[in-house]
Design goal:
homodimer; 347 residues; 60s Ribosomal Protein L30, Chain: A; Phosphoribosyl-aminoimidazole Synthetase, Chain A, domain 2; 6-stranded mixed sheet; 11 helices
Amino acid sequence: MTLDQDQTPERAFDRGGPSLADVGERALLRALREIAHAPAPGLIVASGDDAAVWSPEPGTDLAISQDALVEGVDFRRTWITPRRLGARALAVALSDLAGMGARPLWCTATLCAPSSTCFEDVLEIQRGLCAAAGSVGCAVAGGDVSAIDGPLVIDISVGGTLGANAALRRDRGRPGDLVLVTGTLGRAAAGLRLLLDGGDDLSEQERAWVDAQLSPVARIAEGLQLVASGVRCGGDISDGLLVDLERITEMSACGAELWLDRLPVETALVSDFGAAWPDLAVGGGEDFELVATLPEPAVAALLESWPEELAPLTVVGRLVTGASLDVLDHEGGAQMPRPQTSSRHFS
Amino acid sequence: MTLDQDQTPERAFDRGGPSLADVGERALLRALREIAHAPAPGLIVASGDDAAVWSPEPGTDLAISQDALVEGVDFRRTWITPRRLGARALAVALSDLAGMGARPLWCTATLCAPSSTCFEDVLEIQRGLCAAAGSVGCAVAGGDVSAIDGPLVIDISVGGTLGANAALRRDRGRPGDLVLVTGTLGRAAAGLRLLLDGGDDLSEQERAWVDAQLSPVARIAEGLQLVASGVRCGGDISDGLLVDLERITEMSACGAELWLDRLPVETALVSDFGAAWPDLAVGGGEDFELVATLPEPAVAALLESWPEELAPLTVVGRLVTGASLDVLDHEGGAQMPRPQTSSRHFS
């Protein structure tokens, strides 16, 4: 019996209709955003981008975001130590700030764990989280712990600062812009495949891919450098370049081309995974690199002034008119089949 | 096999030792705070209080907090409609801001739900959350959704503003201060008992108690009024007055007396629950009222100027020297047995 049932016209739980699996992650997110959509004073960027941007007063913009890791969906206990898990949860959340070009200031964390969880494991998660936060100057400002009759959940909120009107936004792309990415693509997805295959007898190269999956690094310095260089369109690559570039094209009302020959991938990835390498490089997520777009004339200066100590920038395609995202074997070349993307949620 | 196991000295999961249930919530929170404890510029109040306080620049303090509701621990699906659940999750998180005397600005929310969850139920949760946020001028600034092979989890982050040095803190009590609470105590705990007993055939009074459990209201206006009136010590009552006052005495290095005859409880609570009523009124949580302490000479002016439209303030005890929290039948009266407190986590 639902107590509300007979006294209000509200619906109780589980009254039928399509499930989240029927609807899919994308439609779910769209529907949730539509409900949340209400103009609020000070809220410059609402959900839909990597982070929301809040301007409590002129000149100080805050970027805020929240990201959860769920056992069985985002990780398995047999894959990772608790300490690395804490660091990973923070990196995943911080990547949303990096994708806005924000400087992290604080985080709070909720941990849901079964009562049977080892106390020391939870402390190790906290140690990993705090060490990772400390290394980027982010204060751990509290949070919540809860029992759960189910999997571990680590949900992290992050906040950071942005210069006024100086965010990497997904709605600022223009046809003709070149598309750039930081670092190397496909390593984390390769690591995930190895883990799903059992993760046994790994070569040094394979172990490095597994590390890329288990210990991602948020590209905070790269995001700050992009906005400092005047770049205003971009985001992080959490769900794979294809999906994350599509978010840019949708929000910027344009299309895009990706050029396979320009993608920054390791030769070992191509040799080890053969024809499947584009599925990893642009269909697979969790590299937590950044994608940015900017007008072609500005690209040379950006690349020239790009600090050597940061993850390198590579031009990988172009925004175009229209609405489709095409994968070409090279600029002006043949259209290739769309690489397979993988969503972990509701699919 | 844990991949880290052989390459690092880190411990894998589940290596034994005491569990969270063995250690208990209080020791867990203390240990987590010790690990997180690192001075951070701008972080004025770290974890341990209701919310952390962040001062990005002089004059503007931000209060931030995060709170999760977990199915099976904090609610059951058969108790509540999805819309009320969304509103409840927000109210619980906002109560931490009320407990600091902060004005809510934004929230973000993570929802973990099994793929089989009805799409419409999730939209209803979001509608409830957004309506509740809108009613207090709080913007819904995004969040995360994740699949989970387990119970529903709704984890909400909230942020708000405080005047400089104008927070209700748990470490500002002094022996001699009177202890005041807002509203009426024990109603939500009574409602929880009725729900756990099946929730059938409820009287109008009982239904009101169930409503108090399912639809709490964060005392935001009361928190703002307290700080505006110069009160500097206080917090919300999420875990019961006994536990939440104990947090004040611990952080303020003093003891306290509670006077049973002064507690604001409904006569129906006393008549319906008999000798167990103090367990509900001071041992039971989730009324989400506020507790504050202030020097006795200032109390009359506070009560006199207290706006009628707010939840009333009642003096219920006093901070004293020492470290014990005693429950007396009346001021200067006999010491009573300590009412039973209930923790939902790791006990």
